[in-house]
């Protein structure tokens, strides 16, 4: 007992020391070309001028990410959300669920629709999505979460599941949202790989032609997917997180084995090899690239990578990335490109982890965290009075 007590005291002191050491070096930098959009953000989104101070338990990016992934639901008692579900049949016979949270009453934001794209294994029930939807609901917005194929409790109808750069499903979802709420401008928030999909959509001809999305928010993106896949396998702790992600990916295959492995499909899939995938890269190698007709996983990652392509985004977009995100180091965040863009800004905080941003000193209290303040301040300013129109680049 005494030994255990001494150990935990040492651990606590170590954490506090680490925390104060970390605090001294905190900073945030907004990467964007000097001009109207950057000035707009500095004026209307005061959080971009704040230092981000992490929770005491999150003294480095790895721990922060692990805490956020494993304990967010415990540390932040996030209310359940009463969604209204809609099942959407897709052109190729697939099906996805979209979960609506309609505004409680008419107000200044009730006409705006916010489409939310969770991370690769997420759905409308993961903590950071519920947290966001609750926040948007409180502020009078209409939100709708896109659950990818096989997610949100849905079964697959065909062998096809998630891709980071195939935008066909998202296009159908947006078309549907537009048809239901034709006069409603759409903002979209993408988390992690969901943000990669959103980024790819924003660069697409579909977006250029139909202008579905008025503005985007890109949170904790593995901007360079190739590099992120290397980082995901670079240490013991990362391999534990990779194992957990691949477990969630493999479970979709298990639940839908009958649909995926029937004689009508000819994807040369090998169930045992998929089962043995311990990282996202191995899973993509055995499954995703076969469904989406890539011969090489690195070609897929290269196509999905957003670095080097930011000039294709025409609408105003705000990114939030942490320099200590263990999935992507600072050098791989496209800060240089953002500095050249007059409509794309990336706020880089020195801490925050991967979809972390747990920021009360003591995280076991309900408070509005940095990420939520950023989303709210940005949408409140960019989505009103058609402000987004001012910042569309040619
Ligand atoms: C992405 O990362 C890979 C691996 O480090 C690198 O080879 C590639 O050049 C990067 N891509 C871009 C567009 O920066
Ligand atoms: C992954 O994490 C979840 C909690 O997020 C847990 O329920 C699950 O058992 C973990 N799986 C593995 C294989 O670590
Ligand atoms: C199935 O795939 C194999 C190898 O890719 C090919 O040779 C064969 O013609 C395909 N069969 C059908 C029915 O498409
Ligand atoms: C992949 O190729 C097959 C056979 O040519 C085709 O039926 C399928 O639609 C392709 N899938 C995608 C996602 O392009």
Automatic annotation (TrEMBL):
InterPro entries: AB_hydrolase_4_sf, AB_hydrolase_fold, ABHD4, Hydrolase_4. GO terms for biological process: medium-chain fatty acid biosynthetic process; medium-chain fatty acid catabolic process. The active site is at 192 (charge relay system), 325 (charge relay system), 354 (charge relay system). The keyword Protease applies. Signal peptide: none annotated. It comes from the Eukaryota. Keywords: Aminopeptidase, Hydrolase, Membrane, Protease, Transmembrane, Transmembrane helix. Residues 113-326 form the Serine aminopeptidase S33 domain. The keyword Transmembrane helix applies. The chain crosses the membrane at residues 6-23. GO terms for molecular function: acetylesterase activity; aminopeptidase activity; monoacylglycerol lipase activity. Belongs to the AB hydrolase superfamily. AB hydrolase 4 family. This is Serine aminopeptidase, S33,Alpha/Beta hydrolase fold,AB hydrolase 4 family.
């Amino acid at each position: 007992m005494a030994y255990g007590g001494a150990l935990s005291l040492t651990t606590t002191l170590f954490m506090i020391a680490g925390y104060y050491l970390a605090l001294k070096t905190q900073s945030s930098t907004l990467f964007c070309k000097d001009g109207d959009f950057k000035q707009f953000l500095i004026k209307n989104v005061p959080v971009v001028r704040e230092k981000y101070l992490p929770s005491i338990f999150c003294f480095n990016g790895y721990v922060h990410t692990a805490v956020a992934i494993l304990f967010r639901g415990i540390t932040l008692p996030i209310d359940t959300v009463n969604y209204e579900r809609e099942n959407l049949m897709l052109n190729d016979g697939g099906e996805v669920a979209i979960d609506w949270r309609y505004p409680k009453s008419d107000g200044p934001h009730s006409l705006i629709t916010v489409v939310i794209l969770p991370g690769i294994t997420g759905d409308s029930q993961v903590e950071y999505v519920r947290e966001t939807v609750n926040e948007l609901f409180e502020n009078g917005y209409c939100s709708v979460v896109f659950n990818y194929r096989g997610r949100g409790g849905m079964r697959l109808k065909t062998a096809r599941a998630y891709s980071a750069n195939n935008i066909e499903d998202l296009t159908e979802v947006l078309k549907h949202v537009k048809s239901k709420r034709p006069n409603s401008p759409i903002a979209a928030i993408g988390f992690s790989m969901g943000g990669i999909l959103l980024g790819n959509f924003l660069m697409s001809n579909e977006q250029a032609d139909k202008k579905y999305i008025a503005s985007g928010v890109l949170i904790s993106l593995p901007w360079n997917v190739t590099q992120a896949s290397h980082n995901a396998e670079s240490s013991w702790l990362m391999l534990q997180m990779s194992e957990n992600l691949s477990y969630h990916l493999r479970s979709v295959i298990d639940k839908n084995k009958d649909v995926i492995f029937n004689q009508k499909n000819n994807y040369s899939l090998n169930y045992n090899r998929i089962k043995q995938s311990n990282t996202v890269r191995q899973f993509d190698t055995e499954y995703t690239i076969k469904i989406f007709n890539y011969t090489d996983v690195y070609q897929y990652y290269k196509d999905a990578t957003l670095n080097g392509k930011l000039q294709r985004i025409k609408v105003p977009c705000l990114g939030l990335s942490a320099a200590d995100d263990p999935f992507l180091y600072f050098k791989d965040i496209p800060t240089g490109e953002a500095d050249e863009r007059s409509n794309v800004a990336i706020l880089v905080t020195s801490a925050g982890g991967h979809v972390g941003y747990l920021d009360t000193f003591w995280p076991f209290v309900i408070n509005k965290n940095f990420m939520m303040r950023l989303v709210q301040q940005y949408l409140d300013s960019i989505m009103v009075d058609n402000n987004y129109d001012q910042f569309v680049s040619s």
